[in-house]
């Protein structure tokens, strides 16, 4: 951790994230939501139905995002130069890659009920090995493409720290979900006891950040894709502007609790504003720091990686058996149409800011506890992995 990083803004930012929804709810309503304390959270009975106006606005925004990804030059990005890029020769796969593939494939078949009946008692426990098998397998692909650089190979202890941070991160969203009419819920809620769900879901949540990061690392090894977003508009905010964004994030988080249905997109945007501003004020690097030089690749590729990661995850979820306790469904206000698996089509665009937040969440926790937050395997995007392992 850099000596210039100050911990007080990190602590205050985290406190703001936790305290704002709680204080807003108690000050305005004087009590907690009806579902408070029930885990996993049940389906909300009063989610608003479809709205053509909100859906139309969402479609317009989605089309704008797609056009940006298709033709960034129309938004001020320089054309990609055709100069060849030197990179490490692709090498062998590491020892954990094939076992990861086998673990993922076996768990996938188990979750979908494709194995003999004798394996049925294992079905409720298939989620965690499926995702960790996927993470190990993809980390092996990154290792091969970079000539031996990957998170597991270079910083195995940091991988465990990211997993622990991932658990805390997603439990925060489960906490926030209580205040926002349960935009998602888990209908298979009678398999474990409530304590069992808390423990098992804690293990399941360790997979969120590592899976996103390994897909991001894979995307950064695709040189033309990375170069596509490396020469864009340069934007630098003053500390005063960052402070205003912090307060905007806190205010919007409070507003989300007051009007959870019309402001439901803020579930992903408000925490991103608060935590990114706090990390920036602390003096630490974030994916948005690269935009000062016109390099938008970290921000865009982490968002794309998250959408791709959970397109696969939504598929696994949709076809899982009724014995999967991790199965989830959505009750998204106003736009719950055109589903791709369980997720409404427009919901996939919410994965873009969510991925950015996941990265900032790890950077926040790493700096708070004195760890090296680097995850990049390719120089030029962000702080890169070193050859030393964490002590």
TrEMBL record:
Superkingdom of origin organism: Bacteria
Transmembrane regions: 49-69, 93-112, 118-144, 156-173, 197-219, 240-261, 267-288, 295-312, 345-363
Record keywords, A-Z: Membrane, Transmembrane, Transmembrane helix
Keyword Zinc carried by entry: no
Name assigned to this protein: Small-conductance mechanosensitive channel
Natural source organism: Nannocystis punicea
Record lineage: Bacteria, Pseudomonadati, Myxococcota, Polyangia, Nannocystales
């Amino acid at each position: 951790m850099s000596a210039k990083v100050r911990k007080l803004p990190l602590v205050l930012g985290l406190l703001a994230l936790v305290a704002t929804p709680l204080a807003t709810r108690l000050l305005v309503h004087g009590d907690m939501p009806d579902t408070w304390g029930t885990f996993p959270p049940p389906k909300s009975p009063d989610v608003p139905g479809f709205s053509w106006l909100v859906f139309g606005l969402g479609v317009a925004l989605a089309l704008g995002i797609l056009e940006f990804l298709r033709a960034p030059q129309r938004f001020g990005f320089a054309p990609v130069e055709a100069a060849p890029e030197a990179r490490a020769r692709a090498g062998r796969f590491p020892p954990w890659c094939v076992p990861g593939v086998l673990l993922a494939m076996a768990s996938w078949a188990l979750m979908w009920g494709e194995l003999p009946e004798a394996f049925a008692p294992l079905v409720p426990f298939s989620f965690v090995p499926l995702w960790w098998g996927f993470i190990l397998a993809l980390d092996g692909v990154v290792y091969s493409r970079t000539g031996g650089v990957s998170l597991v190979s270079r910083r195995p202890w940091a991988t465990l720290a990211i997993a622990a941070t991932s658990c805390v991160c997603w439990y925060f969203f489960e906490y926030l979900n209580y205040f926002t009419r349960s935009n998602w819920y888990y209908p298979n809620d009678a398999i474990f006891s409530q304590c069992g769900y808390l423990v098992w879901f804690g293990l399941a949540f360790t997979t969120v950040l590592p899976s996103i990061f390994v897909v991001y690392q894979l995307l950064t090894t695709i040189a033309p894709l990375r170069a596509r977003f490396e020469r864009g508009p340069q934007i630098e905010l003053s500390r005063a502007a960052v402070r205003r964004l912090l307060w905007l994030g806190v205010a919007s988080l409070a507003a989300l609790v007051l009007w959870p249905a019309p402001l439901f997109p803020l579930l992903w945007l408000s925490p991103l504003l608060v935590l990114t501003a706090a990390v920036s004020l602390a003096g630490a690097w974030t994916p948005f720091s690269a935009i000062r030089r016109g390099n938008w690749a970290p921000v865009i590729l982490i968002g794309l990686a998250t959408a791709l990661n959970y397109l696969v995850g939504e598929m696994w979820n949709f076809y899982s058996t009724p014995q999967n306790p991790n199965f989830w469904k959505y009750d998204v206000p106003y736009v719950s149409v055109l589903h791709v698996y369980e997720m409404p089509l427009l919901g996939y665009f919410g994965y873009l800011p969510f991925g950015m937040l996941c990265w900032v969440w790890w950077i926040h926790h790493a700096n708070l506890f004195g760890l090296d937050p680097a995850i990049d395997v390719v120089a030029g995007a962000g702080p890169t992995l070193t050859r030393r392992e964490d002590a």
